[in-house]
Structures are given as C-alpha cells and as structure tokens.
Specification:
By secondary structure, this protein is mainly alpha-helical. Helix content is 57%, strand content 2%. A hairpin with a 3-residue loop joins strand 1 and strand 2. Helix 11 packs antiparallel against helix 12, helix 16 runs antiparallel to helix 17 and helix 25 runs parallel beside helix 30. 49% of the residues are buried.
C-alpha cells in the first residue's frame, strides 16, 4: 500500500487502537455484544443513591459508596458499615451518584490493552530479566488485533451498510505483512487451542515460544476481566431487562454466583496456556500466577473470597497491574516520548476508567483510542508517541476522580507514574473547577506571539515544578495541548453524530448541543483554531518565517493544516445534525429543513434577513408549542431558541443560535483563507452532511415505528428520543 510516511511501530499501534474502538467497544466480557438498549442504560448520568439496588450495598463497591457519601467527614472503615442498619432510602434520596461509579461488565478492548502491556513487559524484562526482543512490536499489535477478524469496523463509514469488514486483506493493507502473518498464526493456533479445550484434551504445543507466551497473555487478560466482574457481583446487580438478555443467551443469572461458570472456564484456559512449553516465566507466568491466578483459585474454592478480586486494592486488579513488569520496572519519566510510555499510559487509563461511559455509545477507553487513531491520519509524519500518551491520559484525572468513577486519580499520581512534564501536559487538558479557565487559557494562547512546544514550556530535562493544577488559565496551551483539545473535540462531535438517540434529557435536543458547541467547547476551540490560522498564514506570507526563533517546521505546519481541515469539517457535520434536530423540534418538513440549512450557511444572507426568513417564518413559537403539547419536546427550554429554564410564557433568547451561525460562516471564511475550499473538498463536505442527515432521518423513522408499542416511561432510548422526555432513575 502506498504511504506518504513510513509504517512505523507507532503508526501500527494507533491504527490497532482505532480498529479496536471500531470493532470491540460494544463487546463485554461474559455477555458478548450488547444491544443498544443495554448500552443506553450505561450512558453516563446521575441517579439518587437511594435508587440503587440494595444488593449493591452489601458488596465492597457499595460499602465504599456509603462511606464516601453518607460519612464524608469521617475516616470510616467501609467494612464496618452495616447497610441494613442505615436508612438509605431517606439519607440517600438527595445524594446523586454518577453511574460511572457503579460496577459494569468491562469492554473487551481492555483485554487487548492488558495483553499488549503484558507482552511489552516480556519484551523488556522477560528471559530472566534480560529481555525478549523476539516479542516484537508487530507481534504485540497482532495480539491486540487477533479477535477483530470478521468484524465490522463501525468507524469506517457513517452508514452501517458500508462498514468495512476486518479480514486478512485489511490487516495487510493497514499494518503490513508481518502483522498479518502474526495475526493468522495466532488465530490458527487459538482455534486448535480452543478445539482441544472443548474436547477435554491438552492442546498441541504452540509453534514457537513467542506464540505460546502471547496466547498465555491473551488468556490471562480475559481472565482478569472475568475476575473483576465476579468480584463486583456485576451479573447480580443488572436490571431485569439486561438479565433477561443474558437469560435469552443461555446464561443463568439467578444463582448465588452467576459469574462462577465463566470464571472457572477462563481460569482453566489460562492455567492450560501457562503450562505450555516456552511461556516466559519471569515477566509473565510468575507475576500473574502469584496474583491473579491464585486469587481466582481461592474464589472458586470459597465464593466468599471473590470480593478480594476487585476494589481499589483488589488482587485481580490493583495487585496484578502494579506487579506487571512494565508497571514495576519501567520508568516513563526517563522516556516521555516513547512507544513504551504510550503503552503504559493505556494501562493507566484502562485501570482508572474501566467503568467510565460517555454520554453516547462510547466507553472512555474507546474515546481515547479514537483520538489516537485520528491523530495518526491527521498528523502523519508529525505524530509522536507523546501525542498518543496524552490521548490516553487526557481524561484520566478529570474522569477518574472520586465523584466521577470513584478511582480517586490526581495529577500528583500522574506525576509519580509518568514524571513532571507529562503531568503538566495532562494538567493542560484537565478541566478546573472554574468553568471559564479553559476559555481564558485559549484566549492567552491566541494572544501569545508564538506557539510553544511542550519541551519549551516544561523543560523535559530539568522539570522542577512541584505544584501542578488543572488548566492554569494564565499559561498558553502547548502545541501538543492544542492538538489533543482539537482532536478530543472532533471525537466528541463524531460520537454525537453517530449516536444522537442515546443522549438523555437536554442532550437529546438542540439547546444543550448548540450551547455546548458554541459557548462551552467553542469558547476553547475557536481561539485555538484562530491561533493555528495565524501561524499558518505567517508561514505563507512572511519570507523570513523560518528564521524566527520559535517557528514551526514544515512537517508540523502541514499537520496543523490537516488538523484545522478535520476540525472544521466535523464542526460543520455536527452543525448539520443540530439543525436537523432543531427542524424536528419545530416540525419542519423536508423542504422547510432544506431552506433553513441553505439560509444558515449563506453568507449573503445578513442577520436581519436570517431572523425574518428563518427565526420568524420557519421557527415560529406556535410550532414549538404544538410539539410540547404532544410530547415531542419536553419544554421550550430544551430548544436552542429559549433559555434553559424557559417555561411556556418565557421570552426567546436567540443569541446562542445567531452566534452559532456566525461561527459557521467564519469556518467558511477560514477555508477560503487557507485555500481549503476547492470544489472537490466542498463537494466531499456536502456529501458527508447529506449522509449525516440521512442517518438522522433513519434513526427518527426507526424510533417512530416503535412509538405505538412503547409507553412514555419506557426505558427505550429510541422512544425517549421521539418523546423528548428526560430519563430519570
């Protein structure tokens, strides 16, 4: 396959991340591929503590919740809490819990992350500590990809009918022949391994010690996910509809230990794999056998011991992770810009955000993977391991806090694990408690006379700062910070484009979506776009630009142009979908929606004309009132043309929508300034917008067809999308 840049180990890694996000994010340990209804129950939202299942409070996770929420000022031992002696219904009624703190089945991409880090440890420290270079980066990538063969890549197209299928040809085209060969060899041996296990006989020896070690890592990683599910009592805590899905799949969820059958099977497979000749002992067999395998064996012998498998100090989670050689011996601070540090960052992200779900289909892990994958396609030769590391870590502190996922992560922990410079860069990307700090930091970046590299800002060779805080509004974003902020926005927009019906409450409608795009994320992104524009234009018009002490080299400038092009495109696609949502709220037909879209993007239509022809003629209050009356939208405040708390008699506030249109027109001007408005590019953008609108219409039509058979308070997300009702716990 012809490439504009070399197919390096880093490129293969981030492409593997992208394939995993596109093929395995809806797959869970034990349950397999989840329905969209199940996924909708996992979407991040707040629920009253009192609404949680009573059984949860008799687990370690549940007692931790009670200690944190009901006894916040006491240094109380959660194990001393008797849930039956507490009036949780009364005390927890007004206490809201982020659902990302609740136990869930883990996405199978976590097994791939763990497999990669186990094998990296063998590569660096196997063979009695001397290292095992024959565990190549290609083999590690193949181990991550082996289970994706035959699956559809959901990010390969907007339309599900056009999704690419991962096969040998795909692997060869995107990863090269070495990875393809390893994937085939692994898949073939695993089929023999599984067939032998199914027949109750010993599998044949692996074709090489490298394959034997890789299969042992794969099986151990799967066991780790099952062990955490068992320790968290996940199957017992599912809602009745989710339990029924498992029952329909032949899984018994009504016994005292429903995870036991799967735990036992994965335990036996792992033990069999570990007994194969050639499996590395020092960096794989010994640390995993003495933590995970022994703890699982104890839980199988005595189910009362299964809680040891989970929790912040669990033997199957914390102890296993910290005893992996890559975590125990590798010093990331000595090599912040290396592929090994990027791997370690993925492990840190996975163990901190394993329960994290976003306000869409995506898990936290897939979100980070998607950022890394897009960074490769956008940055090309300018891609560095540091960017991938930041993609993995950018949400870890913010979403790994006690209040969000219960993990209790912090910048101090990042500094301890990865060193001061990476911690400082993560702090750039971590939102502070002051909402305006991000926008202020972006404004400082825009006014700064030049772009700053992370190496300049943080002095990698002599970083001495001891105080690191989120955002730091008085300092500009570094170039790496700008890249991750813009790519994070791109992926967030993409998630909204693909799964609008999975949003809940305000997020299902034009008000919250447009306000976020323009006033919240836009307040940060717009200045960063303008700053990149200034740099690109300076490089084009100033003949002495490359003599400047802080100039950006040609490779990075080209990457910056591609980054701007990609960001502008996704902002326009998201705007098209938001306009479709707005048109639906006001019951516009196909022609009316087309007229609104045309006038919205027409720079020759001034504000006065736009108000008259769109805001008054098309988007009339009478249409919205009728939609509210029939339950299509919950209240006027859900629409972008009214304040958030608006009632039926409230006055309009059109300022957000007008500002949103002005930003769209500004994007058109930027394209012209950078000569990104060629006929081919504009035609491609129009085609993508049409695909987004068609998919939106299909989603709407599918939801409408179910409306007659589902009640207003159904837990069906698709029905709630039509009804416009905020789901409550």
């Amino acid at each position: 396959m012809a490439r504009a840049y070399p197919l390096t180990d880093l490129v293969k890694l981030v492409r593997a991340y992208g394939v995993l996000a596109g093929t395995a994010d809806t797959e869970r340990v034990i349950a397999g591929t989840l329905s969209r209804r199940w996924i909708s129950t996992e979407v991040e939202h707040l629920v009253p503590l009192s609404s949680l299942p009573r059984e949860l409070f008799h687990t370690q996770r549940g007692r931790d919740l009670l200690a944190t929420e009901l006894f916040p000022d006491q240094d109380i031992d959660p194990e001393s809490i008797d849930p039956d002696s507490i009036d949780i219904e009364r005390l927890g009624r007004d206490t809201l819990i982020n659902t990302n703190r609740l136990p869930k089945l883990e996405p199978c991409i976590h097994a791939a992350i763990l497999t990669a880090n186990i094998l990296l440890g063998v590569r660096l420290y196997g063979n009695h500590g001397r290292g095992m270079p024959s565990i190549s980066h290609d083999l590690i990538v193949a181990a991550m990809l082996h289970d994706t063969l035959g699956k559809a890549h959901c990010y390969s197209s907007v339309s599900s009918s056009d999704h690419e299928i991962i096969d040998e040809s795909y692997i060869f085209s995107w990863f090269g022949d070495e990875v393809r060969t390893h994937v085939v060899e692994l898949s073939d041996y695993l089929k023999e391994f599984e067939a032998a296990i199914g027949q109750g006989v010993l599998p044949p020896d692996a074709p090489s010690k490298e394959i034997a070690t890789t299969v042992a890592a794969i099986e151990a990683s799967r066991l780790r996910l099952t062990a955490r599910a068992a320790g968290d009592h996940v199957l017992s805590l599912l809602d009745e509809t989710s339990k029924q899905e498992l029952i329909d799949a032949g899984i018994d969820v009504d016994c005292d230990f429903p995870e036991r059958l799967f735990l036992k099977a994965d335990y036996e497979r792992t033990c069999t794999a570990f007994s194969s000749p050639g499996v590395d002992h020092y960096a794989l067999r010994e640390p995993i056998r003495n933590t995970l395998i022994m703890a699982v064996r104890d839980a199988l012998d005595d189910p009362a011991k299964r809680e040891r498998l989970s929790g912040r100090r669990g033997k199957a989670v914390h102890e296993l992770h910290i005893n992996l050689p890559v975590m125990e011996y590798y010093v990331a601070a000595d090599a912040p810009n290396s592929i090994e540090t990027a791997h370690l960052a993925s492990l840190e992200m996975m163990r901190s955000l394993e329960r994290g779900r976003r306000k869409s289909l995506s898990t936290m892990s897939a979100h980070a993977f998607r950022i890394a994958a897009i960074s490769e396609r956008v940055l090309g030769r300018a891609l560095e391991p540091l960017i991938v590391t930041l993609a993995m870590l950018h949400d870890v502190v913010e979403d790994g806090s006690v209040r969000v996922t219960g993990y209790g992560h912090s910048l101090r922990k990042i500094q301890f694990r990865f060193g001061g410079p990476i911690a400082a860069m993560v702090s750039e990307l971590t939102d502070s408690n002051v909402i305006s700090d991000g926008a202020n930091k972006a404004a400082v970046t825009l006014s700064h006379p030049h772009l700053l590299s992370p190496q300049e800002q943080y002095n990698f060779d002599g970083f001495k700062r001891t105080e690191i805080k989120p955002t730091e509004a008085d300092l500009p974003y570094t170039t790496s910070g700008i890249v991750i902020k813009l790519l994070d926005t791109v992926v967030s927009l993409e998630e909204g484009l693909r799964d609008p019906e999975l949003m809940i409450g305000h997020w299902r409608h034009s008000g919250a979506r447009i306000y976020w795009a323009e006033r919240v994320r836009g307040a940060i992104v717009h200045p960063l776009i303008e700053r990149l524009l200034l740099e690109l234009k300076a490089s084009q018009i100033d003949p002495k630009y490359y003599r400047r002490p802080h100039h950006v080299n040609t490779v990075r400038l080209r990457a910056g142009l591609a980054l701007l092009d990609t960001t502008l495109m996704y902002m326009d696609l998201y705007a098209a979908q938001n306009l479709a949502i707005l048109a639906n709220e006001y019951s516009l037909d196909y022609v009316g929606r087309g007229t609104m879209l045309s006038l919205f993007y027409d720079a020759n239509v001034n504000d006065e004309q736009f108000r008259s022809r769109v805001l008054q003629d098309l988007l009339s209050d009478q249409h919205l009132d009728a939609a509210v009356s029939r339950g299509q939208i919950f209240c006027p405040g859900y629409s972008t043309l009214f304040p958030k708390d608006a009632k039926d008699s409230s006055q309009r506030d059109e300022s957000n929508f007008i500002a949103y249109r002005n930003s769209a027109l500004r994007r058109q001007a930027i394209r012209r300034e950078l000569q990104l408005d060629s006929a081919d590019k504009l035609s491609a953008l129009t085609l993508r917008q049409e695909q987004v609108l068609r998919r939106f219409d299909q989603t709407l039509q599918a939801a409408s067809s179910r409306e007659s058979s589902e009640s207003l308070h159904s837990d069906s997300v698709a029905n709630a999308y039509i009804k416009g009702v905020a789901l409550k716990a």
